[in-house]
Write a structure and sequence with these properties.
By secondary structure, the protein is mainly β. It has one helix and eight strands.
Amino acid sequence: MDTEFEVKNPLAEKTARDRWLTERYCLYLDKEEAIYRYDIHHKEWEIKRVELKRLNLNCKIGAFGLTDKPDLMHYSNGVKVVAWKRTRI
C-alpha cells in the first residue's frame, strides 16, 4: 500500500454516520484462540477531514479485495481510554 494524504481541519459538526463510525464503548481482543471484550469509556473523538493525495491499494483477504478509494475518511490523534476487566466471549 502506498498512500499520501493531508490531515485537514476538525469537523465542525459530526453527522449521525460520523458518530456511529467513531463512538464505540467496547473493544475486542483476539488472543490465544479466545476473544475478549472490554467495556471502555473515553471522551468524544475529535475527528478531522482527510484529503487523499495518492492511494495505491491492492489488499486481498481470500476472495475479498480492496483496491478503490474509500467513500469516507476520518483522522484522529486518538483519545485516552479507561477499560474495565475483560470478559471472555
